[in-house]
Design goal:
By secondary structure, this protein is mainly α. It is built from six helices and two strands. The protein folds into two domains: 49 residues, no CATH class; 91 residues, no CATH class. The chain is 52% helix and 10% strand. It has a two-stranded antiparallel sheet with strand order 1-2.
Length: 157
């Protein structure tokens, strides 16, 4: 199946905006409907804006600077050189994933979005302050439930 020009543009340029419309097809339908009402040859400028404030620098510092390092240390201290509950399937063969901060981040993104809304994947880069807080709380709860370990608190200024 070949992609229409519009679908190709959406594949290349519009991926990060799929969440706003639900699916590529819905997004393409929206654009096609709007474009059909424009004059041929008309120059069109499209501007995207966010409806929510981005996560804060404090949240990012805590997440990347403290929580992910602590998570890696906790997994390794409990003998998990590969991540529990997280495997990758390649050509029908399941492979274990090495425990490191990047893979832990990937694992929790997958777990969180399945937990929150399995029909819609929200990129961590596009999270609001509230969504990032929920994501961090989800990770903290995971370690408390799985290992009985309380995550370190963010340092207060």
């Amino acid at each position: 199946m070949s992609l229409t020009i519009l679908e190709k543009v959406m594949e290349v340029e519009g991926y990060k905006y799929l969440v706003a419309f639900g699916s590529r097809r819905e997004q393409c339908n929206l654009y096609e409907n709007w474009l059909s009402k424009q004059k041929e040859g008309q120059l069109i400028e499209v501007t995207y804006t966010r409806k929510h404030p981005d996560k804060t620098n404090e949240q990012l510092r805590y997440y990347h600077g403290l929580l992910m390092s602590w998570a890696e240390e906790t997994f390794l201290n409990h003998g998990h050189n590969t991540l529990p509950e997280f495997k990758i399937l390649v050509n029908g063969v399941e492979h274990e994933i090495e425990t490191n901060k990047d893979n832990i981040d990937l694992m929790f993104k997958q777990f969180f979005f399945i937990y929150k809304n399995p029909d819609q994947f929200l990129n961590k880069a596009d999270m609001s302050i509230e969504q990032m807080s929920q994501y961090i709380e989800y990770i903290i709860d995971y370690f408390l439930t799985k290992f009985g370990k309380k995550a370190p608190e963010a340092k207060k200024k």
